[in-house]
Amino acid sequence: MAAPIIVPLPDCGLTLVFGLVELLDDRGGREDGYKIARDLNFKFSDLLKVMKAAEILGLVSTPAGDVVLEPLGKKFLAADVNERKLMLRERLKVHSLFSYFIRLLHGQEDKSLTKEVVLEHLAMLLPSEKPERQFQTLVNWGRYAEVFGYNKDEDRFYLDQE
Fold first, then answer.
1. Phi and psi of 159, rounded to 5°?
2. Interacting residues of 111 by C-beta distance below 8 A, sequence separation 6+
3. Whole-Å CA distances, 13 to 32, 50, 114, 137
4. Domains in the chain, please, with CATH?
5. What are phi and psi of 109, to 5 degrees?
6. Is the separation of the CB atoms in 8 and 126 below 8 Å?
7. Alpha carbons 36 and 159: distance in angstroms, whole number
8. Is 122 exposed, middle or buried (0-12, 13-18, 19+ CB in 10 A)?
9. 148 and 160 Cβ atoms separated by less than 8 Å
């Protein structure tokens, strides 16, 4: 059996993703990516990370350089914060990196791992990525969606809820 392909997370905060979704809604649901980058005074490479993150979450699609608000993105905008968290949690649980760590944490008696162990796994799984950045994104997105938690005092990464 082949090992699953683990897809890295874009180094991007969720607030930028939510802002992109809101901007697209304000602009009728579709816009040229280069125009958005110019209008926001973003480097296009930075906007690409936001677009990729929004695409991973199912909120947008990116055909031929455009950014298109998907039905899930519209539903997301209409939702309250708890519904948003639930929507993202469902999307993240099936993302390869999140599902890998969910399975790994389920195998631990206390459903937690040290940050050092998580960083080692990230370095092995994604050798061309910076483990610390992947860790921060994993924690930040996971915290928002209540998939993972992180206790900084103990440097422990844990399952937030089932």
1. -70, 130
2. 105, 158, 159
3. 21, 8, 23, 7
4. 14-78 (1.10.10.10), 89-159 (1.10.10)
5. -55, -45
6. yes
7. 36
8. buried
9. yes
Give Cβ neighbours of residue 97 (< 8 Å, ≥ 6 apart).
6, 7, 8, 9, 125, 126, 134, 138
- Structure confidence by residue, pLDDT tens digits, 60-92: 999 988 999 999 999 999 999 999 999 999 999
The conformation of residue 150, written as its DSSP 8-state character, comes to E
- 0.85 exceeded by the pTM? yes
C-alpha 122, offset from chain centre:
15
How far is it, in rounded angstroms, from Cα 103 to Cα 145? 17
How do residues 17-53 score in pLDDT, each as one tens digit?
999 999 999 999 999 999 999 999 999 999 999 999 9
Please report where in the chains the tokens 């890998």 appear, as a residue.
100
Q: Long-range CB contacts (< 8 A, 24+ apart) of 69-72?
A: 69/21, 69/24, 69/25, 69/29, 69/30
Candidates 8, 10, 14; CA nearest to 141 is: 14
